[in-house]
Amino acid sequence: MDNMKLDQIKHIGPICALKVISNNLLLSGEGPTLSLYDYIKGEKIFERLVFKRNKIHGIEIINSSNDIEDDIKIVIWGGRSLSIFTLNNFKDLNYEIPHYGVSDWIFHCLFENESTLHVLNSHNIVHTVSLLNDNCKLINTKHCGWKSILYSGTISINKETGKITVLAGTVMNGILIWDFETCQVKHNLTEHEGSIFKVVASPDNKYIISCSDDRSIKVWDMETGELLANGWGHGSRIWGLNVYNISNDGFNIFSCSEDCTARVWRFNFHDNYNNGELIQERIILVHTGRHVWSLDLNDEKKLGFTAGADGKIFVSDLNESQRDGYWGHKWELNDISNEINCVFQKGELIKNYSDFGYGLIAVTSEGKIMILKDYKKWKLLFIDDKFAKFCILKIFENEPIVIIAGKMGDCILMKFNENCEIEIKHEFNLNDSFNRLGNILINGYDDNYFALFESPNPNDPLIYKKIDPINLSILESYELLKPKDKITISSLEYNKVSNMLFVGCRFATMLVYKIENENEKNQPLVVYKNLFKGDTVSSIKSLYDNSNNTMLYITNKDGTYHIMKINENSTYEYLQSSKIQKGFLEGHIKTPNGDILLYGFKSDCFFVWNETKQYEVYREICGGPHRRWNFKYWFDSNNRLRYRFVYTRSSEVQIVQQGEPYAFELLSDGLHGREIRDICVINSQNNNDEKIIITGAEDTTLKISTLKNDGTFNSHWTYREHIGGLQSIHAINDEYILSSSAKEELYLWKITECDNKKCMSLESSLPPSEENPDLRVMDFDSIEVYDKINGKKIGFLIVTVYSNSMIKVIYYDIASKKFKVLIDDNYMQCCIFHVRFVCIDKRLFVLIASTNGHLSIYDINNVIGKYFSIDDSNIKEVKLSLNDNKFEEINESTKLDKLIINQQIHQSSVKALDILQETNGCIKVITGGDDNSIIVSKITKDEGLKFDIESFLPSAASSTITTVTVIDEKTVLVGAVDQSIKLWNIENGLTLVDNKYTTVADTGCSEIASFKNGEKYLLIGGAGFSIWKITN
Amino acid sequence: MGKSSKDKRDLYYRKAKEEGWRARSAFKLLQLNEQFDLFNDVKRVVDLCAAPGSWSQVLSKEIFKDKNNSDAKIVAVDLQPMSPIDNVIELQADITHPKTLEMIMHHFDGEKADFVCSDGAPDVTGLHDLDEYIQAQLILSALQLATCILKTGGKFVAKIFRGRDIDLLYSQLGYLFDKVICAKPRSSRASSLEAFIVCIGYRPRNGWIPSLNSNLSTEEFFQDLKIGRNSLNNELNLEFNDEERIVAPFIACGDLNSIDSDATY
Ligand SMILES: C[S@@+](CC[C@H](N)C(=O)[O-])C[C@H]1O[C@@H](n2cnc3c(N)ncnc32)[C@H](O)[C@@H]1O
């Protein structure tokens, strides 16, 4: 018998506990594994499995011998389990971690001292445990006489008096506060609605802070039980909170919620407790999906730590303004007027800013040109009427060269030195070319600097000027003719590979020029229109890699971005396209480590978003639509992003420059924010040592990642095209995949690689059958179709099944990117879960499995035979070819031919299915159901087809079987919601080969990745993602 | 847990509206009854976690169909308030609180009940293990009441989510009932993990006299009842893996031709 075995090598999933243990160390509970991070260096130092099954839900520590880190005593708990050890024990692999338990779920543990631990359970009972001589002994059990189920609870100790208080959050509005010594209930606080999800005491034990179902945070007086303040703001339920920064004035609260955000609140003692309101000071959006469950604080260094369902650990700086190099200031116009000793006229405003690296240049609506030296002191440079009312101010990215221009085409180029003094100045005007100026765009590459001038007159050409960076003289000047349609330019880039100039415009248009002969009128080489559905191309940046391709990163106002590849013949394709969740994009930044950051605006905020890792880097509330702003960024010696942002808000000038970060932002990358619903594995086109993994989740996103044959896993991009939660993802071949979701979405994606990342782009989508699509595309299958004569791939035959019993067979034509529905019919009135094409003896069938527990097979040869022939007799891979020209004639869809098999095998839904094509021509179907059973059935050739059940195991798992994956000719993997993953041998009956427990709850999908070198990995998805090595 | 139930337009929802049930859940109980003949000989019932009340409606209609039914009684309990239903005594309380169980017992005044059911579902937090645990606690509270109030041979039905520890519960119920079955009505979505345990033939444990004591939590209540639950000991060395696990037989109920709750139109 075989000895095939499963070993988990990686797990990414919900994080339910965080604990800061020093000014550089953090403990994190990642399922049953405890991890230790250094958050200054941004490294994981150590990890170890500490529980067998239970997830770690809480961590507390005690450190009596203050300085010696290794002596820190740690208690971790989760479910009914708990364990106590020192940091030293934890790191010592020879030390066996002890495992204890109580008979009820644990909500909190507290060390009263080194040898006494209190444990609060979910029925409001406290067990006291003695820890003398490294032994755990239950010494006491206390309660307050109220033993209903809790949703949260904390044991709190007053550090001065040693008095212990229990704070318990019930399911029916109430918070019970009871004195541990006397067991007397002090307060029953009932002003919340619904279950109480967290209740804690302030570190000085004077206040109680709680949150609940009702989305409010409440502050109560510990002594009197009086409700002092409410905090409203979170958009969903609040899961956690804590108090920090206590002073004579008040304190701060750090909270985290189902709305993916963490928030900072202020409670002031004076002002009559802010009139009963908590002031919301900051919103931190760094998690995706849904839940941020865990948080902790470093009060001394003012850092906030959050983690949740997405597996990310994020460190937020709660005291940015105290970091080295931070600079934040605001000026009223009056302040500036006083500083420059010059009166502003009524209604005079600052219209434009440009940051040249040593200071800032600004111009007012009355033509006052001012300098903000070192970002601190204003100086008047000059006043010139020519720049009043309308003025353009632009700055080169890497040179302190500024261009300022007026409405009539008067321009001044200025170069500044480190003292913010003008070094060189060059004035010119554009009268030769046009009499009105509309806009200027500037850009540069290597040592070349150029500007593009646009007149509002559609008949005027664009003027391109190349500028000498040393003496600011104009080196070259060209006229670029505009196309006939009215255009408005918005972004500019030069590409070195193709030697072309790209001009982005409004209405999703892009112009391409090749600049060759001076003074000649250059026609655009190409005009790309309707590049995407949205609006303005807001930024273009060349992407250079080892290939000789012309590639551009483009961002668009509508929140989409693309990597665009321009082919030799001027056609283009998108290698990568995606969009942000909300907001307008202004530009993109690539960090030295390859992360892509996007920046822009949403509602009243400016934001910088790390698209690669999916978190907000920076957010500044800067007001409404008529924004005046300047964002300047650079990378410091540690390759970290630094930035300065200047903006006008209600006539005040505000500047923020971020200081040197104290800690590392992201300690763990995580993956999806909600349950993973399907996994798809494809071969990397040019690397046998890696596979491309596409995952799709309830959070509606798709992610593309790579798995190397040594087990390393890296995520590259996230896609937000689907509106509904993902249902299925399958590969057609190594180049195309399909994904489907609720809202009747079926998307075809093309996989490529560029900028050192795997990427994909939406190629086409199947139009829904209803105006208000509400159906789920449950599953689909596909076969490649070849040209009969030249053998080239020309399309795919696809079968899709739906939640309303609909079945469609569709042909997709690669060249025209169009779908044609060949068959459109219904099975019965139940939801179809699975579909496969099966080919037996050169005949093609459709096999489906549904909620009624049936396996059903349709013969589709009559319909399919009209258009296609099955050429290849290789049973493992069906080869279809299209009969000449028939495709054009297909006008309307037909019905399905006869249902040749319709047999109930499971009692209710067939939840999992995979097939195994045997060499002798028959097909094995392995199914798992809601009824906990596994069935192996066999389909063989007969007069029609013959269907037999080969083996049946009724209680193969203790709950619904949700995934079946064939591993090889004799082995299948079966996963169930009871979190079991089992390998079964299916040669003769069903024999169990291996049985493991997975930390992935709501276990729902699996896939296998087999490498050329023989390595085999199993991927499991659900509420988390884990990778297992399969060995023999 | 499973997929979010977003679609309010499904056929069961509409059918419930038409037939006057307060919730589509009514069909779950009706289909369970079709399969197991639950209502046969049933007169005194406790409906736990009953709001908005469609199970109580079904029960009230069934039990009080013939008018002179003096010894019949239905007590319905929920955290949420419920609008009145004919012949149903309604209590707003937390069923995990021992005092609530006392209150219910009080209404029965020493008499036994024929049927205890609970369709309870907690506030789902997304922490799958916690959600499953709280769900299990709701079932245990219901079971606690059942052991005190159910007549020998009585029936017990409760909603379950079949997560990783469901086999523990099956095994424990096996000590108290002749038959324990996991049933899935067709009106319950296949895409959700919901199912129902149907326990038939209550068999009080020999020598164990259940007594409600508002000082005991549910967990403590079951501690000396030998049904394979681990109980707290001084060394805190609970060996969870030693706890018995069995898989209850599965039965899908409701006619195959009845509406499929997963198919949306
Ligand atoms: C699915 S609904 C019940 C529907 C009901 N069977 C019907 O047919 O209308 C679940 C109910 O469980 C209740 N519940 C949850 N936890 C509870 C507790 N600890 N005590 C009482 N009721 C609870 C909720 O308030 C909710 O109304």
TrEMBL record, chain A:
UniProt-listed Gene3D superfamilies: YVTN repeat-like/Quinoprotein amine dehydrogenase (2.130.10.10)
WD repeat start and end residues: 189-230
GO terms under cellular component: cytoplasm
Classification via SUPFAM superfamilies: WD40 repeat-like
Keyword Repeat tagged: yes
Origin: domain of life: Eukaryota
Stored InterPro entries: tRNA_Anticodon_Mtase-Reg, WD40/YVTN_repeat-like_dom_sf, WD40_repeat_CS, WD40_repeat_dom_sf, WD40_rpt
Location of this chain's protein in the cell: Cytoplasm
Xref: Pfam families: WD40
Membrane spanning stretches: none
A GO BP annotation: tRNA methylation
Sorted UniProt keywords: Cytoplasm, Repeat, tRNA processing, WD repeat
Record has tRNA processing as a keyword: yes
Similarity comment text for this entry: Belongs to the WD repeat WDR6 family.
Protein name listed in UniProt: Rtt10 protein
